[in-house]
Amino acid sequence: MSNMWQISVPGSTANLGPGFDSIGLGLSLYLKLTVSIQDRWEIIHLDDNGPKEFELEEHLLYVIAKKIADQYGKQLPACRVEMASELPLARGLGSSAAVIVAGIELTNQVCDLGLTVQDKLNLSSQIEGHPDNATASVLGGLTISSMNENGVVDTFHFNDIDASFVVYVPDVELKTSESRSVLPEQFERAYAVNASANANMLAASLMARDFERAGRYMEADLFHEPFRAKLIPQYTEIHEAAKANGAFGTALSGAGPTLISIIPTAIAHDFVNAMKNQFPEHQIILTKADEYGVQVKFERLLQK
Fold it and tell me: Rounded to an integer, what distance in angstroms lies between the CA atom of residue 214 and that of residue 275?
């Protein structure tokens, strides 16, 4: 007999406009791992959404798994890991956060750590540096979070986000470090008050499931989008076309370059077709909120 773990982690969108580094939403786009213990490490990517060439010791999944094992004083056993991902790299759909959450869960399983949900929130957010994508991948649904100076995460979590989302993925990468480099170091008080008010209204609208109002505040960010817009292919054109076709609102997904719209589910089919016709150079994906977060399925398989 041999043991095999199947780990599924949702990708995520962060910020949704002014919810900078604090609001996240798990999406029904997944990183899936099949893990079994063997004599030597082997990481196999089943698609193009992973590094084509890598040294094991530099692969993010291995780095995280080893880090967590060391942190808990455990010996990490060698594993065979097959990775299938629907999350393109460096596009603003939480690909790195999903790998971090997967690495934590892998070690949790193979080293029998017994991590709590709060442990997973803290560990993943500490590694990411902020809790938006990480909490959404751990919990699914909508997360509104803060992390204190000790790395302890406090999260409001909401499921039943009954709206549809459309992501527009361009064929270019944008590293978070590059996207952060264009942001101001500080804001004047009046400007910061307005930016904070918009973020509060976005959070309240999402919590109330008033998606029309939420869409309006998604487009009212003052913290980062005015400065990042110049880095994003067809930023203005996509905003205008999405609004014309019935979207509640459109914002950067995380640091970009992907954009995301929140739309009424009733118009989803026609909306996607219209946007595909207008932006054929983008990969346009209809999705919804994930409801479950990281999931583990354990199987015992007969050796052949």
Answer: 21
CATH of the domain at 140: 3.30.230.10
Q: Is 96 annotated as a binding residue?
A: yes
What is the pTM assigned to this prediction? 0.93
Range of the domain at 255: 164-288
Residue 300: pLDDT band (50, 70, 90) is low
- Residues 280, 295, single domain; the answer is no
DSSP single-letter state for residue 265: G
pLDDT class of 174 with cuts at 50, 70, 90:
confident
- Listed residue (149, 106, 113) closest to 129, CA to CA: 149
Clarify whether residues 54 and 194 are in a common domain.
no
Residue 93 annotated as binding site: yes
Is the pLDDT reported for residue 302 higher than 70? no
Q: Residue 97 annotated as binding?
A: yes
Which pLDDT score is estimated for 2? 47
244 is in an annotated binding site: no
Residue 153 and residue 169 in one domain = no
β strands within 123-169, DSSP E: 142-147, 153-158, 164-169
Backbone angles phi, psi at 57, to 5 degrees: -65, -10
| pLDDT greater than 70 at residue 301 | no
| Same-domain status, 141 and 186 | no
Binding site annotation covers 92?
yes
Q: What pLDDT digit, counting tens, does each position of 35-86 carry?
A: 999 999 999 999 988 888 899 999 999 999 999 999 999 999 999 999 999 9
Residues 124 and 105 in one domain: yes
Query: Is 170 labelled as part of a ligand binding site?
Result: no
**What's 268's domain CATH number?**
3.30.70.890
Q: Is 78 annotated as a binding residue?
A: no
Q: Which tokens hold the place of 221?
A: 């960010």
**Total number of domains constituting the chain:** 2
Separation between Cα atoms, residue 22 and residue 121, nearest integer Å = 13
Residue 88 annotated as binding? yes
